Amino acid sequence: MRTILLIVLTLVGLNSGSALQAQSNVTLSFNADWRLMLGEQENAQRMDLDDSEWKSVTLPHAWNEDDAFSKPIHEHSTGIAWYRKTFELPDNAPVDKVFLEFEGLRFGAEFYLNGEWIARHENGVMAVGLDISKYLKKGKNVLAIRTDNRWDYKEKATNSVFQWNDKNFNANYGGIPKNVWIHFKNNLYQTLPLYSNLKTTGTYVYAKDIDVAKRRLNLHVETEVANESGAVKNGNWQIRVYDAEGKLVKSFDKKFTIAAETKSMLSSQALLQEVDFWNWGYGYLYTVESSLSIDNKQIDSRKIKTGFRKTAFKDGMLYLNNQVIMAKGYAQRTSNEWPGVGLSVAPWLSDFSNQLMVESNANMVRWMHVSPWKQDVESCDRVGLMQMLPAGDAEKDVEGRRWEQRTELMRDVIIYYRNNPSVILYESGNESISEQHMAEMKAIRDQYDPYGGRAIGSREMLDSKLAEYGGEMLYINKSAKHPLIATEYMRDEALRKYWDEHTYPYHPEGKGPLYKGNDASDYNRNQDQFAAEAVRRWYEYWRVRPGTGKRVSSGGLNIIFSDSNTHYRGEENYRRSGEVDAMRIPKDAFFAHQVMWDGWVDPDPKGMHIVGHWNYDAGTVKDVLVVSAGDKVELFLNNKKLGTAQQSNRFLFTFPAVQFEAGELKAVSYDAKGVKLSEQTLKTAGLPSQIKLKLLHGANGIYADGNDMVMAEVEVLDENGQRCPTVNPMIDFSFAGPIDWIGGIAQGPNNYIGSTALPAEAGINRVLLRTQFGKPGTVSVKAMSNGLKADSLSFQISDIEQQGAYFQKASSENLPSYMGRGDGLGIGPLNVVRTSLPIASVTSGANQQKAQASIDDNELTDWVNDGKIENAWISYKLEKKSLIDEIDMKLNNFRSKVFPLAIYVDDQKVFDGTTTTSLGYWNAQFPAVEGSTVKIQLKGDTEGKSENQHAEIGGKKLDDGVARNDAGSTGTLSIIEIDLYKRN
Prior knowledge:
The chain is mostly beta strands and 984 residues long.
């Protein structure tokens, strides 16, 4: 192996404060050469303990990683696990101050160095720093860590549980599943952004006076400097700014004086011009280097990868770089895990997964319940994916010590991630919190990230005066004030291999076991209906998008992106709500979103996708679904035009009862004037003939660091090289060389976790392999299946730069940014499709004092009559006479009741019919009528529908309007909010 060349001067012993001023700091990976033992071990912290029989592991490594997808979340292995590492200090690094940075441990951890207890960390989520300087010895040092990932873990000092240590949401990958770094510094140094334990805040980079059009901003840098040298220090602070290509674009300096044994905050600013702004799908990052020098000799340097963007949160909308952007994306489980390894994947795999979200045209990810790990946050920076970032929560507000734990975690999260441009929203809770608690969270943001352009809010918070954003979990909210974004819509589940009822294994829509005694058909969908439901759900958000009036929805986040080893309701033992499966192979819903989401608000009309495949038995008749952003779609089978599509939910085009005929199925889309926009073709595949292997790995190389990985994709092809989409043959893998098998996932015994033989479901599957620490070389992989031509591939694993217990983690370096969407500037003005009509006064048949609640822009208040049908009317007088042709109403019990209504403009009836259940807002359109008043009247008994419609099953009754028990009343009309419009 090569030796790391550290450009420093001669080492002058431990903790000496006088002779190291010429040396700079060094940061190295501390992931190698750990020993692991499960269970309680007596004297495991002692230096002289013989751990030679313990398991050798390289971090990041959850000791129960094999549980990932083989066991349901509530059966994940828990208990005590000890990790030990023996190391010596390097010969050529400063050691005045030595810090360890753990990116996260699960759940509680006790740290011992050379037999002495040094610290405890207990939140199970966030990073922690340890100052080990005074505990180090010359020669051998032993670090021992006792981890405890039991579900009922309690804080030692208070005996309080942690709210977010929950068996439903936070997959339990125990031990040390994230990276560990060691920082060697002089006794004058810039601190680390690790408040927990160290109480330090590091460096803060932010922009003010941003002018997007002129591409300039004022760059501000603040850095906390500690002087532990015993003497006053005078020196020079240099700021160097490099663009994405590494070119120096700005340089500015400032003199400093820091008293002995103090911390001081240095701050400086400079004008930065010709700025490339970070944007959606445009992960443009700068490197800001902050260095301290004394007598022209650099003694400390810190590099911050960051990006610059302008945000605003107003008028019910989110603005990015001066343009309205509708939030479209996913509520992804924070574990973001993979089969057989959990969350501890190679850095490039985080980019691979998160970039797929962007390629599905998502612009935002909401990590669920707990903060993500550093690798995913930095990955979102690179791929251009906005983040809604939580600290820790389960599903409700709490008091006392459990609330304090949440505020402490939020503080740590903000300090750690405040330089990451993709972090746009801080989430204070997975459910609404009190105004007092919101004020506390906002104060933490204002203290540690006052200029980062990040809003802080919580789920719900619909009527909050303090929250800067909100939004319900599953339903549609509109606002003219702070943005409201649905945080977890569409709970349906579908296995990727279940195309439809006509394709092997012939899965009828919804077939599966009950869930807690309830019909669970929504959680056992096939791919046709999973994709169709994705369209139906998104349509309701898109219909009230920015540009549709004064009060709008700011978007919605679909739960989840990839199938997850968390709470499930379908027939498998893991969550299958993903638009991609656990190996990130797309389902049809992925492409449906790609069509609907390809735009800042309105989609590119050229987007189109034919749902499913075109390989059926002779005589098969089925509906063909096409998702299109065009206005019209035609379907051709072997150049013969088929019948007219039935358009629904704007984007879904259904061609009923199409009879299968082998050949080509082609869809063509057109705009409203008949101009062709796009076309797509499905071809019938021939019989399976061959296997094709494809190697996927990081663009920065493959390294022997014990954590880097490759993914082998296997396809079953016909003789023409086309994938056979309806076959599921067993694939036998073999491999040789310095690599470990992780495997993939498929439906079957133990989900095939860890197996070297598994089926290629729907003609495709993927498997993971992990490099071995310090073992470069050639690896070969072969895939075989009975009756098919086999395939193989080979690749080279590169050596790493190593010195003793330390190495440079090259797999984390030089990962490319994704900029596939371009800089995103100059998109154009918001397309305003209708105008809200201002209302001057309201009159009602009963409860006049509450009538104003139906137009107060507060979806937690409503007007309701007295239960008598003759009084079930309400009338709205406009500020001025106008054409009226559209109305939105949020009716109480919007998902469980329908209302027979008559609507009048002045005295002219413009609507006579029954509402439909919805995710929030019911819409009425009619030919334009000029008038001054609009009257809504209940004209008959209301009718109850299934209370589970559009919602979860088997649990608590979810939101269905305001909290009032009128679901059984038939003469009650209740309007939460109404909007009157004139279409443009």
